[in-house]
Amino acid sequence: MTRYKAVIQYDGSGFLGYQIQATGRTVQEEIQKALTKMHKGQKTVVNASGRTDTGVHAKGQVIHWDSPFSIPVEGYYRGLETLTPDDIAIVSVEEVAADFHARYDVSGKEYRYFVKRSPQHDPFSRHYALRYPFDLDESLMNQAARILEGEHDFTSFCSARTDRESKVRDLYAIKIMPTEDGWIFSFSGSGFLYNMVRILVGALLYVGQKKLTPAEIKVALDKKDRTALVSRTAPPQALYLWEVFYEKDNKK
Known about the structure:
The chain is an alpha+beta fold.
């Protein structure tokens, strides 16, 4: 058996997330269908760095699979590009060590969230950015971001449905980048809880609008209680899994 690693991109608008569901179209299902066809009908299970929810996009999702066939890297690249639908793209394919795991070897991830300040509804960006036509105080948002950076218990900033026992995560950096027509929020960390990035964005937007203060963000963080935070969870369509990081060299 040979283990392969691939970096893929996808437009999440037409998927019920990455992971296979009982019903509905998913990224994992499309990739596995393509590989099963390449493997002459033999079912192939694909592992990913993590799940993305309905409507969430990926610029740098990482997957791996095992193959009993002698298919060169170039063959997998061309085959997957041909057999997957247009809302999935294959960035790269490589052979990796047999003990590499796309999920368990992750050392960190970066997510980005795109906000447009347009006062007018834009039908062409509605699946890719959040329209938020309000003035935002960048200085206050950065003050709140500095409070949130570091290793904390993020119970107040994740969904109550999170199934992880430990809510402690190390948030390496939050970058708030102004653009010509809005903002890009970048979050890099050791890992993220269910809805954590979307809740962080919602809280920072409230701070930017002066509906919350940085001090109130600190209070909510310390309380370790989801109900301590009054801001809204930002919607999924503006969220992108941007990059996945691995500390060790995984090449075979």
